[in-house]
Design a protein that fits this description.
By secondary structure, the protein is of the alpha+beta class. Helix content is 17%, strand content 34%. The chain is globular, with a radius of gyration of 24 Å.
Length: 425
């Protein structure tokens, strides 16, 4: 080999090594930005990933979970329906490839002279939207309740005043169990009551849900002089890998609310709400031992709407869900969203980006489907020999969707549709 060839070979070799994934060359950034928010001291992850020494023993498991898109825990199918989501936790394919290749190479540390910057983390007690919106304008706590370390499901149902005297438009909302209750609180629904009458849902929380952002230009109203009716479902000992099996003293669940100013609210034309859409009668659910089940539901509106978010709900046997829109005028069905690896320990409200949120004409039909697996192949199934019925307990099943909807008139519908045509051109 002549000197020129040797020089070229060495240069190529050096470049190849530089491009090889190492902890210091890219992998640390991927883990710090996507994993450490949960996998840190005191976090919900069962192990910490705050340093190379902490990450290295778990490298093969990290590779498996990342390659199978099980982590980060955001179950939403790729390549099916709307893909532009707000708060999307899914890793880009290039990041998945980098982690897989890094582990295949032996999970090397890399250049010891490179200083890995620690992740920028908010406190565990912080609110999800605090970094962007500041602290909530209003926090509404539930009545404290003690949760034993084990036993049957518990419910706490009670009302608390909001303290507001005037109507406010909600910008964002988050429900947050305090401290050790994160794996214990199965769900926490909050209904708005005015003078003893139901006004509507404030929000819904289920395990793993990070919060909701109300789209710009619309108002989700919290009326003045209202009460919040709490319906909190707790599972002693907890559910999932992060369950501590400990008693929780004086558990409190809080709602954090961010409001538009009065001036901003005056400019908001259309109303938005969050509501439960059923997939048939829950009482009809009967899943045999070692068997499967499917539910299907339909809903239409007598006015045009925009779908802002979609959150399927079930319990331990539910494994998949989908949302479609059937337009009777065209005879076409559009696939909106699908989740093929759903888990009851991570409920997500999938927030559609405003420019792609589905516009649904009056008379079009929402088609909602959910699938259930009561076999031993379902890793979340506690007992495949049981008959499973519809009900409120963790071991029962449910079948519904939580959907955020902006209610439009024909003028508003046509205006939004025209804006998208202009943007596409």
């Amino acid at each position: 080999m002549n000197k020129l060839s040797l020089a070229v070979a060495l240069a190529c070799s050096t470049a190849a090594m530089a491009d090889e994934p190492t902890y210091t060359n890219g992998v640390a950034n991927i883990i710090n930005e996507n994993c450490v928010v949960c996998h840190r001291e005191g976090g919900v992850g069962p192990m910490t990933f705050e340093s190379y020494e902490a990450v290295r023993p778990w490298a093969p498991l990290i590779q498996l979970k990342v390659a199978n898109r099980e982590m980060p825990p955001y179950a939403y199918d790729h390549g099916i329906g709307i893909q532009d989501l707000l708060g999307d936790w899914r890793l880009a394919q290039e990041d998945i490839d980098a982690v897989v290749n890094w582990v295949n190479a032996g999970a090397p540390y890399g250049d010891r002279d490179i200083v890995v910057q620690p992740p920028s983390l908010s406190a565990l007690t912080d609110w999800t939207f605090a970094a962007d919106l500041g602290q909530p304008n209003l926090i509404i706590p539930s009545v404290p309740i003690d949760i034993p370390a084990n036993g049957a499901d518990l419910w706490s149902k009670h009302e608390v005043p909001t303290g507001l005297t005037t109507d406010r438009c909600i910008k964002a909302v988050q429900v947050k169990p305090r401290g050790d209750a994160r794996a214990v609180v199965h769900h926490a629904n909050s209904t708005v009551m005015v003078d003893g009458e139901r006004f509507g849902m404030l929000t819904e929380y289920a395990m793993g849900k990070w919060g909701e952002i109300v789209p710009e230009g619309v108002c989700r109203t919290l009326p003045g002089n209202a009460q919040v009716s709490w319906d909190i479902h707790m599972f002693p000992g907890g559910v999932g890998a992060t369950a501590q099996g400990l008693a929780v003293k004086d558990n409190v669940v809080e709602i954090g609310l961010w409001f538009h100013s009065e001036e901003e609210s005056a400019e908001l034309t259309y109303k938005q709400d969050l509501a439960l859409y059923r997939l048939g009668d829950q009482g009809d659910i009967v899943i045999p031992p070692d068997g499967y089940y499917m539910t299907q539901g339909f809903h239409s509106f007598d006015h045009p709407v925009r779908l802002d978010s979609w959150q399927p709900h079930g319990h331990l046997r539910m494994t998949a869900a989908s949302l479609e829109i059937f337009n009777p005028e065209t005879g076409r069905t559009e696939q909106i969203s699908q989740v093929s690896n759903w888990s009851a320990t991570w409920h997500h409200s999938h927030l559609f980006a405003p420019n792609v949120a589905p516009l649904v004409p009056a008379g079009a039909v929402l088609v909602m489907k959910q699938w259930y697996d009561n076999t031993s192949d379902n890793p979340n199934n506690p007992d495949s020999d049981m008959w499973v019925m519809g009900g409120s307990r963790t071991g029962d099943e449910m079948t519904h969707n939580w959907i955020g909807v902006t209610h439009l008139d024909e003028e508003g519908y046509e205006a939004l549709a025209a804006q998208r045509i202009v943007a596409a051109d």
